[in-house]
């Protein structure tokens, strides 16, 4: 179980889980492929269904509320810290990733990404520019043809950018990660919606309690 | 895990088409748009497209909820929060 501090503070790769890949292991392509295959295990199919359980959602809501109250209570200097909604989003994602208990790549990627920063970052702007240059060369090599990758490959690329930490994953692993990620996101939406309803004046707190009883 | 290894007989690709088809259909079950369509009628490209769209819409929802929550939590005081926590733990 991830502690509150580990979720809020500067990220460090989780060391408790034996299946977790450290940044060093990731740099070695052979090791990465092996571990990637290992994570596509039979019980991964059970994993994505556990996001639908009521207890999982309640645990998430509790942890989320605790984390958010802690995060928002601090009075950060507005110049260096990101806006409140972005902080909330960041905390919500990290609590969600922690709930995955290190079993999926997207959760590990979220937990090892840095907190949002208010300053306009150059890194963000450099990456798309670099990518543009590469594709320009590629199209020139093909005789100035329009870049026409097969549809599936194009969409796979887009998908790999949407799921955190999955840019260089093989196709089946990417699908596994996406499946789990979607289930987790759905739970996140359900939990945050319920929390917002609850806080917005307690319309029917029995609604939430009733859910837990049934 | 050993059964998976024994399936990887071909040298070029270690992944069978059936496996991919299985994963794609599992993904399709999650998508609200094409959940109930028969799997042989839906192409992989369509499933991937819908997946991307769905993930993007989920991200948007989470962003909106984050904004709502950031406003709501600013106004809630500690007593109320303790009450909420008790309700959540029930």
UniProtKB/TrEMBL annotation, chain A:
Molecular-function GO terms, alphabetical: protein dimerization activity; transcription cis-regulatory region binding
GO biological processes: regulation of DNA-templated transcription
Composition-biased stretches (Polar residues): 12-28
Subcellular location per the Swiss-Prot or TrEMBL entry: Nucleus
InterPro entries from the UniProt entry: bHLH_AtIBH1-like, bHLH_dom, HLH_DNA-bd_sf, IBH1-like, IBH1_N
Entries under PROSITE patterns matching the protein: BHLH
Pfam families membership: IBH1_N
Region (Disordered): 1-34
Sequence ranges assigned to domain BHLH in this UniProt record: 136-185
Keyword line: Nucleus, Transcription, Transcription regulation
GO cellular component, one term: nucleus
PANTHER family: TRANSCRIPTION FACTOR BHLH150, TRANSCRIPTION FACTOR IBH1-LIKE 1
Annotated protein name in UniProt: BHLH domain-containing protein
From TrEMBL, chain B:
CDD domains per the UniProt record, alphabetical: bHLH_AtPRE_like
Alphabetic keyword roster: Growth regulation, Nucleus, Transcription, Transcription regulation
GO biological process: regulation of DNA-templated transcription; regulation of growth
GO molecular function, one term: protein dimerization activity
Subcellular location: Nucleus
Stored Pfam families: bHLH_ILI (PF23174)
Domain BHLH: 4-58
GO cellular-component term (any): nucleus
Domain of life, source organism: Eukaryota
Protein name per its UniProtKB record: BHLH domain-containing protein
Source organism per UniProt: Arachis hypogaea
